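Office hours follow-up: a student asked to see two folded examples consecutively, so here they are.
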Amino acid sequence: MQTLFDENGMLNIADIVGNHPSYRAIMEDGVVTDRELSDQAEATIASLRRLQEICTPEQQAAILEAISEMSVLMAVYHRHELQSLNQ
């Protein structure tokens, strides 16, 4: 089973994403189409709905917090990268 952290305690997101079947299928030709983006959005929503069905309210709160923090990280990282391009 793949874990969130590697053996050194570092967040393992790059490997998780890079090895995920959805990502590999989308990136197979190196082009992300509108359809692939739409399909991935639908798959993401389905996965989150599944979590909502099987998790307790406490577990849902923990998942929401983790997703929120990860989303903030991605947003500010992207903003930081854009800032460095403009300097």
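And the second, which I mentioned at the end of office hours:
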Amino acid sequence: MLKPSDFRRGDTRYTDFITEGTVWAKTIPIDVSFEEELGKTEETLAAAMTAINEKLGFIESEAARIMQSTIDDAHLDEPASDRAFEEFEGDEDDFEDITAEEFVKSLYPAALGFEFSDSLESCQAYLELNCDPDYFGGHRIHIEIDEENEISCEGI
């Protein structure tokens, strides 16, 4: 569970607060951003902590569903000859022999962000995933989780 004291001020105009935290047993950077009208103070962050920790708990508990969204987008559940590799801008040869199970095992979290736009009671999140071996030439897979916890893989 994250606390306001875990965060420091962000160092870019897109990141209001930043910290490191654990997602799926991996320590990664976590950032938080607020729309201007919500405020960008420590008090704003403190008021948003319930929503942040709820979304973080959802991400932890729904790892399998999040991973499945990447399999669906990479079409790893289809025969190799039918897969749409251009969606990930990867080389078809990189995926020819990989199974969905192998792909999921290769994934790990690289960054997490929380975005507050309408209220401090709910937020969107994005999760960036890397893979080892690196099937995407240094690119990350971008996962979006909206206020209602709908998960979508946005590609790389």
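Two things to take away from it. The two ends are 29 Å apart (CA to CA). Residues 42-61 form the longest helix (20 residues).
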